Amino acid sequence: MRALTIAATGMSAQQMRVEVVSNNLANMSTTGYNARRAEFADLHYQQASRPGTINAADGSVLPTGVQLGLGVRAAAVSMTLQQGSSESTGGDLDLAIEGQGFLEVTLPSGLSGYTRDGGLKRSAEGLIVTSDGYPVVPDVTVPEDARSISINADGEVYAYFDDRVEPELLGQFTLSGFVNPMGLEAIGSNLFLESPASGAPFTAAPGADGLGRLRQGYLESSSVDAVREITELIEAQRGYELNAKVISAADQMLGATVQVR
After folding, report:
1. pTM of whole model > 0.70?
2. How far apart are CA 27 and CA 25, in angstroms?
3. CA 128 to CA 116: how far, in whole Å?
């Protein structure tokens, strides 16, 4: 009774779909979060009769044959690259990336991480870091006596002082891009790692090489569409219920077979 195992793969697929939707809804308020989407593919087929087989009885060619599918499998959980809306915060170190690209940060392991979360902070030494304390690359240090900070669309960081008229250029932020950003490895905390699927990063100033620009005083909100996610949730629930009914029907058929005298 192949229907039992086939329906079981369907229930497992719909369960995974619900888990992806659940994660999206849980991150509706996560800065710079890109919604995920579960993708599936059919499993192998049992070839009871291959298409094009010659009928031994009359020599005719079978136009379709008999191919029995064995269920479904998870093919990928892909990241949608739709940009979230920009929300005004007024923070000097809040940056929204308008367009493609990631901020590069240095992780404690020494590896480079990449994020679109522009909610930056200052460390005790004045170094600009992420909310988790990871330094942004390249390093930019803000002097203690700086009255305010200005970051233009090209990533240039200026500090204003009470005893000076002209601002001081402290450095310039850069952005990193990837040939296949969907291939980045998510590690949590709004961070990604380079992977063989993403390709090596290329780094340039904001606005160059197809990368986006920076907008000070704004943060990129999550790209999760609540209405779409609820629709996905309902569809997954109905699919799960239908596969469960198939298992129940197959069980009843097996029961009827056992009772045959």
Report:
1. yes
2. 5
3. 15
Predicted confidence (pLDDT) at residue 126 exceeds the cutoff of 80? yes
The tokens 């204003």 sit on which residue? 160
Residue 55: pLDDT band (50, 70, 90) is confident
Please give the average per-residue pLDDT across 181-192, as a whole number: 93
Looking at residue 153, its amino acid is A
**Rounded-to-integer distance, Cα 223 and Cα 190, Å:** 13
pLDDT value for 257: 83
Amino acid occupying residue 190 = N
Rounded distance between C-alpha atoms, residue 3 and residue 70, angstroms: 9
Using an 8 Å Cβ cutoff, are 125 and 132 in contact?
Answer: no
Coil, helix or strand at residue 103: strand
Q: Which helix (H) or strand (E) holds 130?
A: none
How many CB atoms within 10 Å of residue 253? 13
Nearest to 138 by CA among 168, 172, 177: 172
Q: Where are the alpha helices (DSSP H) in the chain?
A: 2-26, 226-258
Q: Which of 140, 174, 176, 175 is nearest to 158 (CA)?
A: 140
Single-letter residue type at 103: L
Q: Output the average pLDDT for the chain.
A: 92
d(CA 250, CA 3): 6
Q: What is the pLDDT of residue 66?
A: 83
The residues with which 112 forms a beta bridge, in sequence order, are 106
